[in-house]
Amino acid sequence: MTESTMSTSSTPARPVSRGREIRTGLRDATPLALGALPFGLLFGAVGQQADLSLLDTMLMSALVNGGSAQMIATGLMASGTAWFLVVATCLVVNMRHVFYSAALSAKVRHLPTLWRAVLAYGMIDAIYVLAAKRYEDATGDRRGQQHWYVLAASVLMYVGWLSSTLIGYVFGKDVTSIDGLGLDFAIYATYIGLVVSCFTSKRAVAAGLMGGVLALALHRLPYQSGLFFATLAATVALALWEGRVRAEDGTPKSAEQEPTANG
User: Where is this region: Disordered (predicted)?
Assistant: First the structure.
């Protein structure tokens, strides 16, 4: 093998450009954004019927940026619940975001604080699914442009959420029955397709099945806390399983994460 051939074969793949990451992020987030529109419309209508002002409704969508938490908070506020109980309830509903942070923190550790804050703010369920898949596909490219992919997808989802909230508030009663039209099927179908594509090992399949079964078994727990406990149990089980496999193979965790000096 000639020197030039060896040099070519050992050259790492060229990282994807920023522009391509942005375009791909917008493309991948489009079906999720369309599927989320009915939820935004419904929340806008609920806010209007709960006698919230347009400003309050839009601020809630802009600052909370979480459909389930916003729906629950609006109902509690309309019933006169104390503000600290509303806040505590929303925190319980969104506890699953702790797992998102744990899963992606190593991927964005090299980014400036402002970048990490922006990405964290937009890290809703749909964006986490896209981000996890994108970073998994880019394994080995530690300093790539994947954060632009996540940012583009987040912005699209955010704009769609605010726009649909505004339309839902303005038209009010005309959209209160939209949840019965089945338009939300698109977002669930897209989630399923993205999640299934991540089942690349027996351990991933087992953890997914365990989490799904537990989530169904615990779905009657208040404030969607069953989802949190199901995810926690599946995560702990997977971590113990991987630790046992590494111990049997004699492979330290650091050896799997860090490249050797020779590449």
Answer: 1-21
pTM passes above 0.70:
no
Considering the domain architecture, whether residues 141 and 226 belong to the same structural domain is answered as no
Neighbour tally for 45: CB within 10 Å: 25
Model confidence band, residue 24 (pLDDT cutoffs 50, 70, 90): very high
Distance CA 40, CA 57 (A): 11
Taking the chain, what is the end-to-end CA distance rounded to the nearest angstrom? 19
Question: Whole-angstrom Cα distance, residue 263 to residue 259?
Answer: 6
Interval 187-206 mean pLDDT: 67
What is the C-alpha radius of gyration for the chain, rounded to an integer number of angstroms? 21
Tell me, what amino acid is at 47? G
Does residue 259 carry a pLDDT above 50? no
Residue 254 falls inside a structural domain = no
Residue 12 has pLDDT above 70, yes or no: no
pLDDT confidence tier of residue 54, bands split at 50, 70 and 90:
very high
Question: What span, in angstroms and rounded, lies between the C-alpha atoms of 63 and 152?
Answer: 18
Instruction: Give the span between the Cα atoms of 180 and 89, in whole angstroms.
Output: 26
| Secondary structure (H, E, C), 31-88 | HHHHHHHHHHHHHHHHHHHCCCCHHHHHHHHHHCCCHHHHHHHHHHHHCCCCHHHHHH
Q: Does 225 fall in a domain? A: yes
d(CA 227, CA 224): 6
How many domains is the chain built from? 2
